[in-house]
Amino acid sequence: MNLPVLQSDSRLPNAAASDDRQHLLDLSLEQLQGWLAEKKQPKFRAKQIFHWLYQKRARSFDEMSDLPKKLRHQLEESFVVFQASEAAVQSSRDGTDKLLVRLPDGGEVECVLLRDGHRRSICVSSQVGCAMGCVFCASGLDGVDRNLTRGEIVEQMLRLQARLDDGERLSHIVMMGMGEPLANLDRVLGALETARSADGLGISPRRITISTVGLPPAIDRLANSGVPYNLAVSLHAPNEELRSQLVPVNKKIGIDAVLEAADRYFDANGRRLTFEYVLLGGVNDDIDHARQLARRLRNRNVMLNVIPYNAVEGLPYETPSKQSISQFRETLESAGVNVMFRQRKGDEIDAACGQLRRNRGGKQ
Ligand code: SF4
């Protein structure tokens, strides 16, 4: 059952259709300091502005009451804080909020807030659409439109943060929304710099996960960045043939190259790797698939996240049966693989990535 889509539940201003001012959220602290220096303003003003934006959740320059009025006016003339608007909001009873964010050029992306105990996790998009073509995913059905900017990624975080109560704070970030984050690595890393900085959202990189289908050169760049983000590699199949069917980009890369790059990431960072496996009824949920998967993962320090598929209208894939889920789990556990079956949060809403955009008939 889908809950009704709310159209007027935005906690932050919805931007005007055309605005040629610069997006403030695109700027690093140093870049803002540079702009302030041009205006003959002291460096510490940049930290004040960041503090208002990321910790005090200001919606406008007007609220930044410890800035001189003239500076607030200059900021207002040069920058827009929020550049997008919320085209739709869905909330489910389990505490999941999903936003469909409309960008200034009409492109739409999704992002999600999940409330789980004390955790306040968000799942954020990195591209409009996706070029990876995973056959079961609504986001990739029409290919990729463009990369998001650093500011557009940060704005999703702030729009989700604005939905929290005053005493709550964001605790975890997952780059697992629409798009392949490693295909837009520079901007994703820029946005995550704001997310983890003490002047930004102050979220430890150990609580930030970057999800990828596995692009080895970009995994190596990420390893060399020296920041210990968690890496989640979407495997979805235990052998070359099936993976190339389900994740077409695999034809050019190969499952062994993906696993070797993941091993190098582990060697560089010492962070336990996560592998994701969307369990599709009758496709990759056989006991034999579980055995092959166990052979691949057995000697690796990994956590395997199995995600029973949410059926998407218009796609020919089915949710696996309870029996196949439990057989799959038993086979992996008895082979000694650390495995977790992820609870499907947001079942009442269009929870699968790309589903809300598609069902709302957004720009495809
Ligand atoms: S599952 Fe992720 S990588 Fe695959 S098409 Fe969808 S958004 Fe892209």
UniProtKB/TrEMBL annotation:
UniProt keyword annotations, A-Z: 4Fe-4S, Cytoplasm, Disulfide bond, Iron, Iron-sulfur, Metal-binding, Methyltransferase, rRNA processing, S-adenosyl-L-methionine, Transferase, tRNA processing
Keyword Ribonucleoprotein: no
Main location: cytoplasm
GO molecular function, one term: methyltransferase activity
Annotated EC: 2.1.1.192
Enzyme class: transferase
Catalytic activity of the protein: adenosine(2503) in 23S rRNA + 2 reduced [2Fe-2S]-[ferredoxin] + 2 S-adenosyl-L-methionine = 2-methyladenosine(2503) in 23S rRNA + 5'-deoxyadenosine + L-methionine + 2 oxidized [2Fe-2S]-[ferredoxin] + S-adenosyl-L-homocysteine; adenosine(37) in tRNA + 2 reduced [2Fe-2S]-[ferredoxin] + 2 S-adenosyl-L-methionine = 2-methyladenosine(37) in tRNA + 5'-deoxyadenosine + L-methionine + 2 oxidized [2Fe-2S]-[ferredoxin] + S-adenosyl-L-homocysteine
Catalytic residues in the record: E110, C353
Source taxon at top rank: Bacteria
Binding site for S-adenosyl-L-methionine: G179, E180, S211, S234, L235, H236, N310
Residues the entry annotates as binding [4Fe-4S] cluster: C130, C134, C137
Keyword Disulfide bond appears in the UniProt entry: yes
Note: Reaction proceeds by a ping-pong mechanism involving intermediate methylation of a conserved cysteine residue.
Protein family according to the UniProt entry: Belongs to the radical SAM superfamily. RlmN family.
Record protein name field: Probable dual-specificity RNA methyltransferase RlmN
Species whose genome carries this gene: Roseiconus lacunae
